[in-house]
Amino acid sequence: PAASQDVPERAAGFPDDLTLLVNDYLAQLRFAREPGVSGLQEAMHYSLLAPGKRVRPVLALATARAIGHDPREVLPLAAALELIHTFTLVHDDLPALDDDDLRRGQPTAHVRFGEDVAILAADALFAEAFRLVLSEQRGEPAHVLAALAALTDATGVNGLAGGQYIDVRGLAGARSVGLRCLHRLKTGALMRASVESVLLVHGFKGVALDEFRKFADELGLLFQIVDDILDVTADASELGKDTGTDARHGKVTYVSRFGLPWAQSLAEQTHAAARAALARAVPDGAAELEAITDFFLDRTS
Ligand code: GRG
After folding, report:
1. Is 5 among the domain residues?
2. At residue 12, does pLDDT exceed 80?
3. What confidence tens digit (pLDDT) does each residue in 181-203 have?
4. Which of 47, 56, 89 to mutate to test the pocket of ligand 1 (most atoms within 8 A of CB)?
5. What is the CATH number of the domain that holds 210?
6. Contact 32/55 with Cβ under 8 angstroms?
7. ipTM of the modeled complex
């Protein structure tokens, strides 16, 4: 690894007040207007309301606070990020992809409801995410559309879908593609959108966005490296996550490629780089974003 940077002091824990705001908002969402589709709504709620960490929506709310806004103003946008994330988890677990039985400490959606309903529930969550932003997110219409464009870009061929393609085709091991590209698309894009969309909805443009983008990109990378480390160091049942680790699926990870000590060192360096970019983005400090960055390094699940 390259020369290490100074590691800043750890901030206080993950912002639980923001997690509560997200969970309360998600819990009151109702999607079905017809009794005939209440079973589909049940499947949507099953995956959405299972105990995830909510890192993407909390990152969005913390970004709002960092720029001096009430986080509650961007709850529809934050919730949309979690709906999209949940959609990808349901698809990722399907037999055609990772074929996992356990997610967020409970049977995966296709195990509980069957593949057909799981696919439909995920598709409906994806669509409802965009409906939520379009119908509930307040802001200047041009700013809301810019935020929506960022969200959409993060899910397409240059984001989640593209990242998953690289994954299923085993292209991360190819010199011309690489592990970094896989994770920039599969994990990083939605992390970046969690920060960027909030800035866009509040009318940020150009250079004002750049340091935040650098921060978000380092954060996405940090999240993934630590995910790869936890894949081999943590007990899956303890994690409450899918039992099918990337290592078991034979995928290339930071640990399988470079070894555990190197991955741990890279995580420390990426954490320092994220904190440095954040300090440039918000010179007066941003307690919640600092705490999230520290949590990304120190998390055990
Ligand atoms: C977007 C059109 C479109 C298709 C989806 C299936 C798919 C393509 C992409 C999958 C992307 C994927 C599963 C990425 C994994 C990212 C990741 C690190 C998941 C775990 O996130 P956590 O730890 O989980 O935040 P919790 O359960 O805490 O929310």
Report:
1. no
2. no
3. 999 999 999 999 999 999 999 99
4. 89
5. 1.10.600.10
6. no
7. 0.96
